[in-house]
Amino acid sequence: MTSTPYGPPDQRPPEQPDPDPALAGYPPPIPQHSATALSPYAYHPVEPVRRSALPDGPRLYQQMLRGPRRHWWRPIVALLLIVPLAVPLMFAAVLPIVLLGAIEGVPDLARYVADAMNLDNLGPAGFLYLNLALAALIPTAGLSIWIAHRIRPRYLSSVAGGLRWKWLLRCVLVTLPVWLVYTGLGFLAQPPASSDRPDHWVLLLILVVVLTPLQSAGEEYLFRGWIIQNVGSYFARPLVGLIVSLTVSTVAFSAAHLSPDPWILGTLGCLAVASGVAAWRTGGLEAGIAMHAVNNVLVFFVVIIFGGFEESFVDTETTGTPMMLVTAVVAQGIVLALILWQAKRQGIDPYFRPTPPTGPVYQAPVDATWNPIPALNRTVP
């Protein structure tokens, strides 16, 4: 009997084929299965991923619409959509007045609605319509951007994708003390011509608390958010986009109030500039909404309780004084400085941060029992 390294023939291990040199050290070839086979190697077609319209890198608020699907014509389409979207929404705002007139049983319902919307003699019904019509600017601005730019309306509120409610509340608390002093000084410096309270003044106060913040937010969404983002999308440099869009926003907001008086235009421009700068530095409309809403609510409270309600609306005959502009600049500057200080303390990020893609990652199945060199499995006594 001839001895071998493996011992006698009856103690030899079973013969095993030598490994294929072409496969040594490499994974085995993937078996050819049909696409319907229940196998980890089965081929499954992958659906094409549609490119997002959101920016693919950090962006400031005024450049939120500068995404990979940006085109020069999209802001123009958004502008053309404003009126078709606003008209039916503002028409819907008339329905509560019609319902109110029907409940009261007025003989001429059309005349009742027309009188209610007359700013020269604005009662509860007209004040209700005015607030609802301006609040309709919120869905109008959001829908136009969604349709034209394919970006969801929540990114019009902030770079975080929605209103940051805690930050909004903090902005209100920061603005309120300064505006109490500012409104009080303005009332003492220029008291109203009439001290008579309007009819249904309690109902008017309720409408101020409930609807005036929505009316203020509607103006901010259109004149700050919508204009700043659409105009800013044309400029690659953030600072240039901010300056141009903020200028357009300020001019449009001041002109929309129809007063030709330079002091009134300057006062309105202060609010527009402060709100626009706050949107840039905080990445959202919360600060501007807080400043606008606190101003309007306090002014309406004062004029409803102490008189001058009809005089509080800015129109073609409204005039101001240089002192009004000076106090507005000081008050807006203080509030803006406090809000930016709080934003720094709270760590408010002014940038949109794209979310990294998530989902299952394909990994080739591995056979745990497979060994690239079967010969090494041989046992040597």
Characterise this structure.
With 381 residues, the chain is mainly α. It has one domain (61-346). It is 55% helix and 0% strand. It is built from twelve helices and no strands. Helix 10 packs antiparallel against helix 11 (286-306). The radius of gyration is 34 Å and the shape is globular.
Helices, strands, pairings?
Blueprint: H1 74-92, H2 95-104, H3 109-116, H4 124-135, H5 137-149, H6 154-157, H7 165-189, H8 201-232, H9 238-256, H10 262-282, H11 286-306, H12 322-346
Helix pairs in contact: 1-5, 2-3, 4-8, 5-8, 7-11, 7-12, 8-9, 8-10, 8-11, 9-10, 10-11, 10-12
Give a quick rundown of the structure:
With 381 residues, the protein is mainly alpha-helical. The chain has one domain.
Dominant shape: globular
| Domain module tally | 1
Helix share bin: 40-55%
Between the first and last Cα atoms, what is the distance in angstroms? 18 Å
Descriptive key words:
globular; mainly alpha; 381 residues; 12 helices
